[in-house]
């Protein structure tokens, strides 16, 4: 039986942390098969020129085919 593998996906949003997490998960589902879990490892606000962006790093577990 294959073991789950874990990869990290980093995503950013101008709206919110929640939107950044949704973006990260959409990226993961587009690239990976059989996603079976996710953990938010890091959240940070990135300020550049007075604009704030919400960045997340999400570890995603998946079962390789």
UniProtKB/TrEMBL annotation:
InterPro entries, A to Z: Dodecin, Dodecin-like, Dodecin-like_sf
| Signal peptide positions (record) | none
This protein's source sits in the domain of life called Bacteria
Q: Which Pfam families does this UniProt record tie to the protein? A: Dodecin
UniProt-recorded name of the protein: Dodecin domain-containing protein
Question: What is the organism of origin for this protein?
Answer: Nitrogeniibacter mangrovi
Starting at the broadest rank, the lineage of the source organism is:
Bacteria, Pseudomonadati, Pseudomonadota, Betaproteobacteria, Rhodocyclales
